[in-house]
Amino acid sequence: MRWMASAAVAALIAAGIAMLAPLPARAQETGPATPSVASPPLTAKPAAAIAPAQTFHIGVVRQLPEPPPWIAPLQMPPDDLGIAGAELGIRDNLTSGRFLKLDYKLSTEIVPTDGDPLPVVQKLVEAGNGFILLDVPADQLLKIADAYKGQDVVFINVGATDDRLRQQDCRANVFHIAPSRAMLTDALAQFLVTKRWRNWFLMVGRTDGDKLYAEAVRRSAKKFGAKIVAEKEWDYGPDARATAQSEVPRGTQVGEYDLLIVADELGEFGDILPYNTWLSRPIAGTQGLMPLSWHPTMENWGASQLQSRFFKQSKRLMLPLDFQMWQGVFAVGSASLKTRDSAPAKVKAQLLSPDYDLPVFKGVAASFRDWDHQLRQPILLTHATNTVTLSPQAGFLHQTSPLDTLGFDRPESACKLQ
Amino acid sequence: MKRPIMLSTGIAALAGLLMVDALPAQASPRAFVTNERDHTMSVVDMNTLKVIDTIKTGRRPRGIIASPDGKLIYVCASDDNRVEVYDAATLKLVKTLRSGPDPELFVLHPSGNPLYIANEDDNMVTVVNVENNDLVAEIPVGVEPEGMGISPDGKYMVNTSETTNMAHVVDTSNNEIIENILVDSRPRIAQFTEDGKQLWVSSEVGGTVAVIDPATWKIIKKISFKIPGVTDDAIQPVGVRVTKDGSKAFIALGPANRVAVVNAKTLEVEKYLLVGQRVWQLGFTPDEKFLLSTNGNSNDISVIDVANEKVTKSVTVGRLPWGVVVVP
Q1: Where residue A66 falls among pLDDT bands split at 50, 70, 90?
Q2: Which of A2, A107, A143, B147 is least enclosed, having the fewest CB within 10 Å?
Q3: CA distance A326 to A60
Q4: Do the domains at A54-179+318-377 and A183-292 have one common CATH topology?
């Protein structure tokens, strides 16, 4: 305990001073001298002393992604990537929930790249976890969601960006915290169109994810009136670091364009493109100027408080997956303050209620789209050391929420929740 | 009375008003404005509406209040983790007080002691004896504590936590939380009315102001705002001030760049006054003839004529003006 004061002194200061002001200095000098070591701290009662009325059991399943062929030193993923965010979410939930006698427990499971997450999910559900955060590939996510169809378990997708999970493959028991690729590329497209950088050169990597990202870029270009003037597939191998200076200039001679958009989700080549292109053009997409849910350089709208809480806890910077897991856990927490009931069906109804909102530290409240359960939220556009802007950009109007200019709006939705 | 030819009609009228009001000789009320990005505090003479001094403060000055006698100015120097106390007459730094980490807003007990400080980074309210800098208590509250209000009788201190979305009511006799009131997202300010019969809590992201009855700690009404041509997302209530007679309330609406005038009896919004950009906090002059608003993005303060509900002037101050207090 850094300080100790007697109950008598505190009572005097807090309540009695009204009559004594200005306070005689002597009263203060004698006050703290009274024996006070044994007196209890004058703070509110610790949460542990109160039996929780309701406990919210939240599970996290993270399947490790396939590692890229090489990792730049600054891109090394921390061991507790994502999980640290979930842990902070639990802390924040506890800080809020103790006032209503609500308790939160986190169970974390890591599945290897070639493992099967379903049995792990089964274990968590059997242990009473009614809310499961999933960072698993889309196919695995669907398998899990379908295995629990109609049961009282809420799945929260914090990792998979696949558009199809919000469209034809959407599921009624899944909420999406992770932004879809469509949301990310729409956010980028709005900014580029605002800058009048409308002619894009698209460079696509070799993975399936890269092709889906490129698909989202094409869709966004069409949606916001940009033009893809050239397109190439990266075919200089998985590790072109040594030959980039000679190969990239050759590979980027595609005529005139405003900006190179790169689709390289694993980070195999995107970072070696800048300054190696034939023309002096900026780079955006999965590298360069990146649309992201979060970044350590985000500081407005209270973001610096979250960054600082995270740093205090984990002694590192908060990355997008950390933020998404924090959001997933906190989404349950903020709904729980209203339901005060840990039944997943009640929490689910609250997540979808019109007055539900989730703090995301981006100036406006986030909420879930009722047509596909996607969290609508602003998207950052950031490079390695600065958040340039947040989309939606001013001027992209919408009849209900400007946030619905990002991703699949109600009229475009192919989702039939079941 | 002869009209000074150098002044515009507006200022002349304002100056005239103040003069006619027979303020004591040389006692010209002064406004103190914290400039978050400049690490300074602007001092504005309320008779001339000119900045008469700019004082260097600790880093990132935000919350600002005055002692009940108006002689001391307390400033939260957020990035220096301390409270600075200035002499309102000499403008000199008198002393610094402990604050706990990242102090943002605070409130003084009506008697002038102790000081209750919201520690935004630490989920805590720190209670400090302003006479001797003793730590009186640390009260654990919700996530990101921010707004601080105290009942006129000093019995209840209310803190809002921005991410927990609650107003926590603390019994000041034992510093225990006695009630937690769920309000809309990102509650910013807690303000009791002068008669202690209402507590107003603004929710920045929720876009509402909850009016709470301290007899039951239940919400009587949530006031919401509609401004033609302004999206709901941009309506973000922050600063709240209610006149002493309980007739009018003023609500700063952030990026909506407006201050709402609310009939405090009927709790209906009556008018929106266009002020500077990202209007943040509000402060009355001691006679409540004028209300000042800090406009963070246009780096100025707006002067609002309370009786006529009109914005009469804006005064350029430092960068990102945050809080304001006016002393006699």
Answers
A1: confident
A2: A2
A3: 11
A4: yes
CA–CA separation, A127 vs B238, rounded Å? 44
Chain A and chain B share a number of CB contacts under 8 A equal to 141
Angle between helices A320-339 and A83-97 (to 10 degrees): 30
The answer to whether the Cβ–Cβ distance between B172 and A43 falls below 8 Å is no
Q: What is the domain class of A54-179+318-377 according to CATH?
A: alpha beta
Ramachandran bin of A125, using left for φ above 0, alpha for ψ from -120 to 50, beta for the remaining angles: alpha
Determine contact, residues A367/A356, Cβ cutoff 8 Å: yes
Pull the structure tokens for residue A80. 């507790």
Q: Is A346 exposed, middle or buried (0-12, 13-18, 19+ CB in 10 A)?
A: middle
The string of DSSP letters for A38-52 reads: TSPPSSPPPGGGS--
**Which chain B residues touch A88 with a CB distance below 8 Å?**
none
Rounded-to-integer distance, Cα A7 and Cα A40, Å? 8
Closest-approach residue (CA) in chain B for A398: B231
Domain boundaries defined on chain A: 1-43, 54-179+318-377, 183-292
Nearest CB partner across the interface for B185, out of A22, A42, A357: A357
Q: Mutate one of B79, B164, B188 to test the A interface: name it (highest A CB count within 10 A).
A: B164
Answer yes or no: are the C-beta atoms of A173 and A392 closer than 8 Å: no
- Selected for mutation to probe chain B from A1, A43, A323 (highest B CB count within 10 Å) is A43
pLDDT in tens, B279-302: 999 999 999 999 999 999 999 999
Beta bridge partners of B35: B40, B321
Q: What are the pLDDT digits (tens) for B145-197? A: 999 999 999 999 999 999 999 999 999 999 999 999 999 999 999 999 999 99
Give the position of tokens 């009931």. Answer: A341
Contact between residue A227 and residue A221 where contact means Cβ atoms under 8 Å apart: yes
CA distance B208 to B225: 7
Q: What is the DSSP string of B111-179?
A: TS--EEEEETTTTEEEEE-TTT--EEEEEE-SSSEEEEEE-TTSSEEEEEETTTTEEEEEETTTTEEEE
CA distance B182 to chain A (A): 8
What token pair was written down for A333?
């927490």
Q: B160, B145 in Cβ contact below 8 A? A: yes
Note the CATH architecture for domain A183-292.
Answer: 3-Layer(aba) Sandwich (3.40)
User: A21 vs B113: CB contact, 8 Å cut-off?
Assistant: yes
Query: How much is the ipTM here?
Result: 0.79
